[in-house]
Amino acid sequence: MKKLFSILIICLLLFGCKKEKEDYRYKFTGDYTFTTQEHYWTYTLYDYDTINTYNGKVTIGKSDNTLKIDGLYIEPEITEDGSLSNNFSNPEFFFGGEFVSTTSLKYRYRQNAPGGGFDIEVTGIKTKQ
Fold first, then answer.
1. 1 in a structural domain
2. Is residue 5 part of a domain?
3. Measured at the alpha carbon of residue 115, what is the angle toward residues 109 and 116, in degrees to the nearest 5?
């Protein structure tokens, strides 16, 4: 009887505890090399393009379903499949993107304002976890 009771206790300890689901956002975090293609304009003929590269990080955001991406002033929402979207409503601002894989992302943001605006496309390649 003691043996049966011991086996029962061991089974309860091993299988009775509910395990928390791992946060899906961690697979996208790490150090990245980002390349930006930027286009700025104004209505007074000021118009230019530039390409920049910088190193940065992708980390867990403040909310349950967001990420913090260096160089981006919003924390986009992310789904389990890696789709990125902005978490606020602003008709002058567009943001969208995705993680192509757990080691590569692409996103774009654009803002129009009275007198000008910008359009920026960013690609990021993970350099380490």
1. no
2. no
3. 25
pLDDT above 70 covers a percentage of the chain that reads 81
Q: How distant is the alpha carbon of residue 7 from its chain centre? A: 45
In a domain, 61, yes or no: yes
Order across the sheet with 77-78: list the strands: 67-69, 47-60, 30-42, 116-128, 104-113, 93-101, 83-85, 77-78
**The two three-digit tokens of residue 99, written as one number:** 């993680």
pLDDT tens digits, one per residue of 76-129: 999 999 999 986 677 788 899 999 999 999 999 998 888 889 999 999 999 976
Helix (H, G, I), strand (E, B) or coil at 5: helix
